Every structure is written in C-alpha cells, then in structure tokens.
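Appendix C: a fully annotated inverse folding record. The material below is reproduced so that readers can follow the format used throughout the book. The structure is listed first as tokens, followed by the designed sequence.
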C-alpha cells in the first residue's frame, strides 16, 4: 500500500520557503503515530527541512537527482521505482513530500491522508488537485485548534476508486 500523507491549505498550498505552512498541535504527533514502523519516501528538500534526521523508527528513503548524494541514516534513491524497491516488504509506504514527489506518486498511490487546512496561506509549493473521479472520500473528521489562533481543519482519508 502506498499512502500519501500531507497537510493542504484551501488553495492546495503545502509549503513556503521549504517549511510547513503552520504547526498544528497534535498533527505532527498524529503523523508520527501513523508512519512509525513503516517506510517513508521524501524528496531531498523535504529531507533538508527536517529538524531531526532521520525520522526515528521508520525506514527513511530520499529521492535525489545526484548520484553523489548521501543521507546519514537514510537510503538514497534516484527514481520512484528505485525508492519503492528499497522499501522493506510488508510495511506500508508513506510519501511525505515535497510537491514534485507528491505529483509523481499521485498516479500510483492507493490512499491519501490529507489534513485539510480551512484557510489560505502564503505558499510556494502546492499539492496536485484531488480528482473526485479518481479518489473517494472514506473518512472525514472536523477539528478546531484554538492556539495560537483559531484554525479549522479536517483529517480526511481518500481511497483510489477501483
């Protein structure tokens, strides 16, 4: 199973200056709970944005264009197929960013875990459109966080239509 996990603002924004749009208390904890014990695939810029590398208790795989790139605590891959081949069998594969990696995996992903942020943000990185002819919403849980300012968001799961 290949699952994309991402927080997406109203205008499909996902990041600005190689950082998240906002930090929601509990969302990163949820991300960890979902991805721990599994494979995670990311692009080089996402790897560089991580405050602590590698993400613990997960197999970290970084897709890069440069053959010489090495990532301490992570495996380097030079294509989507190579990244998938490096994943430990029997464990789910989570795609964690960034924008171009999401775009490439949208055609082969089985599931989307989207944190929909019900707000617009200044952004320079965007998530592809979720086509309702391809993706079926199976779960939706509305939330509000009050600090530092009120923010409505929802945890939504999509499954690829058969």
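Designed amino acids, in order:
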């Amino acid at each position: 199973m290949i699952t994309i996990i991402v927080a997406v603002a109203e205008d499909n924004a996902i990041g600005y200056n190689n950082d998240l749009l906002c930090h929601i208390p509990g969302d990163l904890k949820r991300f960890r709970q979902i991805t721990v014990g599994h494979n995670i695939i990311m692009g080089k810029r996402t790897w560089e944005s991580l405050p602590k590398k590698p993400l613990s208790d997960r197999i970290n795989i970084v897709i890069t264009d440069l053959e010489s790139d090495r990532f301490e605590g992570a495996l380097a891959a030079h294509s989507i197929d190579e990244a998938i081949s490096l994943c430990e069998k029997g464990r789910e594969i989570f795609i964690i960013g960034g924008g171009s990696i999401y775009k490439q995996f949208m055609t082969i992903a089985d599931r989307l875990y989207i944190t929909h942020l019900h707000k617009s943000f200044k952004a320079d990185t965007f998530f592809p459109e979720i086509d309702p002819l391809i993706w079926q919403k199976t779960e939706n849980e509305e939330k509000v966080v009050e600090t530092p300012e009120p923010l409505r968001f929802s945890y939504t799961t999509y499954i690829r239509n058969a």
